[in-house]
Each structure stands twice: as structure tokens, then as C-alpha cells.
Amino acid sequence: MSDSATHYEALGVAEDASEKQIKAAFYKKVRKHPPEQDPDGYKAIREAYDVLSNPVARKEYDNMAAYGDEIKQLEDEAEDLLSQDPPQVDAALKKLKKAVVLGPEIGLLRNRLGDVHYMNGEYQKALVQFNKAIDLDGSNPAYRLSKGHAQRELGRTQAAERTFRTVWEEDTGDYAAARALAGVLFDQEQYEDAHSVLDTAIWEDGKLDFEDFFCYYDKLRYYVLQGQTEKLKEEMEIVADLPESSEDRQFAAFMLGQSGFQLYELNAFDLAHEFMDVATNLDPDSELLQDLAEHVFGLRGLQKELNAIMESDWAHEYVKQIMALYYTRAVDEIPQHEFEQRMETGIDNLEMVMQVDPDSSEIKRSLRRIRRQYPEAYGLNESLFDAILSLPDAEMFAGECPYCQDTITAHKQQNRGAGHCPNCNREIRFTGSAYKKPRSSSRSQSSQSQSSRSRPSQQTPSQRTSSRNQSSGRSSTSSASGTHSSSDAPGSREDSSGPERAYEKWTDEEEKQLVNWKAGGISLDEIASRLKRSKSAVRSRLRKVDSSTKKSDGAGEERKQDPISSSGTASQSTESESSSLAEGLLTAVALFIMFLVFLTGC
Fold first, then answer.
1. Domains of the chain: which residue ranges?
2. Which pTM value belongs to this model?
3. Rounded distance, CA 148 to CA 158, Å?
4. Which of 21, 112, 380, 414 gets the most CB atoms within 10 Å of its CB?
């Protein structure tokens, strides 16, 4: 069908064809150019039918062809511009506007100008032209349907419904008006009314004709969107039994195939499989259907496995994310370059996640189960998943403090034993796979309470303040599973080799940067951000560096104390010296009292 063909040529009728002949020719052409399969071909024959089936529009068309050479030339040039790839819409609009100036009373030109505005997304301008076309010929249903579509796009849903209903009620068998009205009803969630309109149009003449399949196509599509699987099965059986001619079977197969693919996208795999079976049986030679069927059948098992994994509570979230990413690429839902970018980020995250338990162990456990129970999902990238399983066990562990639930990250081997939570400063015990309360915490607390009553003060206020300051240091470290706080090593001490932190050491370079930045007037927040540590950890380290500097200036060699634990060697020494002094004083007082008693007795 050439772009320059007349409406008569498009339908294959003579210029003096009757209304009945024009209608018959249109329906014959529709079988070869269904709207869902050949939208451009259908548009040409539908436009020809709308013009030639209406007496007023047909007369305008004939007059333009006979006497409007300049108008006809502008219209043909506009159509040529619209047929280019991509369509030259702006240039075509200029041509049509000139034609309208030459023939302002021709409704066909007004309607066509409105069509091109609509195509360009200019719905308000389109509506203006459709209204002017209706003013010239109010009986033309095509003009009024165009108006309804513009109203719908402008969000004037109820106005569009009224427009479509007026046209449909004039001819309830007109599938174009029925589909338009049902669509706007469905938009308003009036599902029963939408199906009722389509059923009326389908069975208007008491039989299912080829043109009725267009309304059936909408019914199936609406049932898919509603999730009405039982209704879909009923309609599928009706459609499968009715087609008689090869053209009927081909379109029915196309319709069922499209519905099957929509069901597949909604994860209704079994029903999608049934629809594709019926569709391919109706039209086994269709390449399009074969491609759809291969897609649905080939990914059916994989989809079921992925759904089971995604809905499980045993699969690690990272595993779910990477499986979903590979699947979206497998079904071409994302382009290759986007997939590669997201995978690069995912691999970077994976390297961090696999360094810390329990995430590392849970990921491996999830992949082993997938390899055993869901082979198609594991096959999305078997080499990557095998590589993850072959990684060494994580050396770090992240878990919650048993008191304050703050997350702590520590080395599983180096940091076993007793220590303190950097958040609440309570004593905890690290087993390598969990942070627990000390075994003898209750006895220790009781003993400390009795000792406190018997010896109310073993430290001066300044000593107690110093001890609290020394035990207040905290730190934080980032792991793959989030940002975790970390305390000094359980049981760690400082010796002559320098201070040692439990879960992450301060390097000489870091301390040098810390001092230089502080001297340069950089804020505590900025320093913490640069070193990727908490403000409390930076503040504690600055205090310690300052203290060490002062001591080295005044006294030479210093005795080093544990920065976190209040039970370090230095504090133990201080407590021991205080205790010895107290015991000496008590002894002296006792001897003095005994001496007084002796004198009194004398």
C-alpha cells in the first residue's frame, strides 16, 4: 500500500462504490492488516474507511481531489514527511496549517491537523482542531472518537467517557467505539462495566466475527491485568474453538500468544505455558509466535527457581540481588553496558562482604544450597559462584554487644578473650563467633560491691577521672555489611613497643596525620571523616598523643597504659600502690592506739 494511494485505492474499491461495498472492503482489508500486528497498515485503511463511510467527509474528500490541487499537494507533502524515519512532525504541521488556511471549512483537514498535533503530544491543540471538525460535521463518529482520545490524554476522564459512550450507543457493534469506552472505564477501575461493553460489541450480531477479535484481545488483556486466571482459561477455550479461516486462526493465535507473554511477565508461568501451547497450535508457521514460545518455555524453569529463591528466608540478601541482576540481563530487561556497570559495583561490594562473618559464611551457605537445589539459577554464572565458594574463610567478625546492641567488628583469632564495648564500655567476652557477657560477671559485680563497702576510696578524685578518661576511647570501622563500631582488643595491653588497639590499630602514619591536621586547625569532624573513624576515637587518640608528648617532655621514659581497659597494667600498679599505702597507715594507727592503751594502763 503506497503512501500516495487514494482512500479508494487503499480499500480497493471504485470511486462510485456503495456504502455496503466500502464496509465489506474494509473488513476484508482488516484481516490482512490487524491493528495489533500492522498498526501502520491498519491506520491507513481505517482512515480511508472513516472518510468514505461518512457521506459528508466523502464529499469533502472528492471535492478536494477534484478542485483543490494546492490543498491536495500540501496534504500529500505532509504525509510524505510523516512517513519518514523518524517522522518530520514539525514540517508536516506547517504543511497542514497552510492547507487549513486554504480550506478552513474542510473538516477532513481540521481532523488531520488534530491527528498530527496528537501524534506530537500536543493534546490541547489537537482537541481544538477536533472540536472545529465536529462543528463542520457533527455526525462524523471518527471526529468525536478523536476528541475523546484527546480528552483522555488531558486527564479529563469523565468527559472522555461521555464522548465515547455517545458514539458507542449510536452503533453498539462498532468495535472502535467499544474499545475506546471500555479502555476509559478500565482506567477508572470499573472493570465489570468495561467487560460488559466489550461483550456487547462482540456478540452484537450473535456470532464471533474476525473484527470481534479486537474486543476479545482487550478482554484478555484486562483479565491478565486483573489477575483473573479462571476467566482467562474460559476465554482461551472459547477463542481456540471459534476460528475457521486461516486469517481468523492467525489473529486468534497472535492474540493468545500476546496474552501468554503478558502472563509470563506477571509470573503466571503455568497459565502462560497453556496460552502459548494453544497459540502455536493455531498458527504453527508464525515466526513471531515461535520466538515468544521459545522465550516463555526456555525461561519457565529459571523463573520458578528464582521466585523460590527470592521468596525464601534462607538466601542472603546479596545473593538475591546478584541473582536478580543476572536474570534481568538474561531476559534483556537492561542493556549490556548498564549490567556491566552494576556488576562492577556488585563485585566491589562482594570483596568487602566476604571479609566479614557472618555475612561471608551465610553467602557461601546460600550458594551451596542453590547449587544443589536450583541448578538453572546457579547456571546464570556458575564460574562466579564457584569462585565465591572457593574464597578463604573470613578473618573478621561483626556482631552485637550483648548490652547495648552496638555492632562491633573484630579479628576472629587475634581478638579472642575479654575486652570492653566501645559504645557502652561494659566488659564483654569475644569467642570468635559472638560477643558475650563475661562468665563471672555476676560474681565479679558482687565482689566489687563488697570491696567498695569495705574500702570506700582507693583512688583520689583526680585518679578516678584519669581512669575514666583512659577507658572512654572508641573507634569505628567500615565493613561490607555496614558501618560497625569496634573496641580495643579483648585482653590487649600496651607495652614498650607502642599502643595496640583491639580491632584496628592506629598506624604511625595515621598518628602523624592526626597531629598535623589538628595543628593545622582542621575540625574534629573533618579529621574523623578523612581517617574513616568515629569522632570519639579521634578525640581519644588526640588526648593520648598530647598526654604522651607532655610526659616525654617532663619525665623521659614513661609507663604506658591501656587506652580502653580500666584494668591495664598502669592502673593495676596505681591500685596496688594505693592499697599498700592504706594498709601502712592502718598499721601505724593501730600501733599508736595500742601504745596509748599501754600508757593508760600504766
1. 312-394, 506-551
2. 0.50
3. 10
4. 112
